[in-house]
Amino acid sequence: MIRVLVWNEYEHERVEEKFKKNYPDGIHGCIAEFLGAEEDIEVKCATLQDENCGISKEILEETDVLIWWGHMKHGDVPDEVAYMVRDAVLSGMGLIVLHSAHHSKPFKYLLGTSCNLTWRNGDKEILWVTEPSHPITQGIDRCIILEEEEMYGEPFVIPTPDKLLFISNFSGGEVFRSGCLYERGNGKIFYFRPGDENYKTYYNPEIQRVIKNAVRFIAPTYRNTVDCPHVRKITDEGDYVM
C-alpha cells in the first residue's frame, strides 16, 4: 500500500459558503475520496487547524507521499513543520504540491527560490502533455482542457525542472510550466498547477488521473537520512581502515 497524507490549510472551504459548495468536505476530502478508491492507496488527511498542523516526524515517517494544498495561510505554517517536511523529502518521502501551494514554505525551502508568478482570475486553460511516455502522463491524451481556471503565467521563479510534463496556455496568451518534476536528496517532488478553490477542478477525471499517477510515481523505493558520515577507507585487501 502507498500511504498518502493529504494536507490542506482548509480555510476557503471552511469559512466561505461559495467555496464550501464546491468542496463540502474540503479540497482534502475530495482528493482523499478519489485516491482512497484505489486498491493500492491508503489515505489520511491533515489540516492547518490540527495540532501542529497534523504533522510530526513520526507521521511523516509513516507517509510515503504527502500532498500539499495551501493558499491564504502559508505564513501560519510554523517553520519547524516546514523543515520537517523538507527533511522528510530529502530522506525519500514523495511530495505533490498543488496549485497555490507554489508559495508554501516546504516547496520554497526545497527549491530555494521565491516561486513567484503572474496570475489572473477566470480563464480557459489547456494543459499540453510534453512528455507522453512519462508514467505521470499515462492515460492522458495530447492535452487536458479546463473551461474555467485561474490563470498562472510566466515568469515562474523556480529552478529549471528535472522534467517538464505539462505546459499550459490560456486565452489571454500566457503560458506556464504546469507540471514540474524534481528530485531533491532521496525524494521526488511534483508540482501540478490546476486547482483553484473557485472551480471544481479536482472532480475532473483527467486531473484525478494525473494525481493518481503522480502518487504512484513519486512513492519512495528507498528512504534514508541524507547526512554527512565519516567513513573508513577500503584497502586493496578489502579491509576497512580509518
Description:
The structure is a single chain. The chain has 242 residues and is of the alpha/beta class. The chain is built from seven helices and eleven strands. The protein has helices at 12-15, 17-22, 26-36, 57-61, 79-90, 105-111, 205-218; strands at 2-8, 41-47, 65-69, 94-98, 118-129, 143-153, 163-170, 175-184, 187-192, 233-234, 240-241. The strands form two sheets. The protein has a nine-stranded mixed sheet with strand order 2-1-3-4-9-8-7-5-6. A two-stranded antiparallel sheet has the order 10-11. α5 (79-90) packs across α6 (105-111). The chain starts with a strand and ends with a strand.
List the strand order in the largest sheet: 2-1-3-4-9-8-7-5-6
What does the overall shape look like?
A: globular
Number of strands: 11
In angstroms, what separates the terminal alpha carbons? 42 Å
Number of helices: 7
Mean pLDDT: 95
